[in-house]
Every structure is written in structure tokens, then in C-alpha cells.
Amino acid sequence: MTFNPMPSFNAHMNTTEEILAGRLYNAYCAAVGGKAFNGDDLPTWTEFRSAQSKVKQSDAWIVVAKEAILWAEVHLPEVREF
Q: pTM of the prediction?
């Protein structure tokens, strides 16, 4: 299966992928204690998504969310929409 990792990005999207990416990012932040590898506080999803210096990283969370949705659609057939 070929997956296109380059979705169309918009820092202020309100799509299922954007919402799920934010939730996954928040879960990640909680799991690592809210700190980056260097001890800095991790930004909120909104701050992270809006930061020009973090575009590549925040876009990657959208790719992760899309992959999670695809997995759920295949492995959880009762899931129709999130």
C-alpha cells in the first residue's frame, strides 16, 4: 500500500486529521512530561502548528493522524467517522 506522506497543509484547518493530530500531539506531550529533549516546555498544539520553525514537525503529526485514521478504517470496520 502506498501512502502519500505529503498532505495539503493549512495551519488553521479544522479537519478530522487536524483534530486527531492535535490530540495525538497532546498525548505525546503528556507522556514525555511536557518537556522537549533539552528541557524546554513543549508548546501547545496551536502554538506548535502556527510556528514557522516547526512546520515540518507539525506537518508530520498530520501524517501520523492520517495513518491512524487509515489503520482504524481497515482494522476497525465499525468505525465510520471520527
A: 0.76
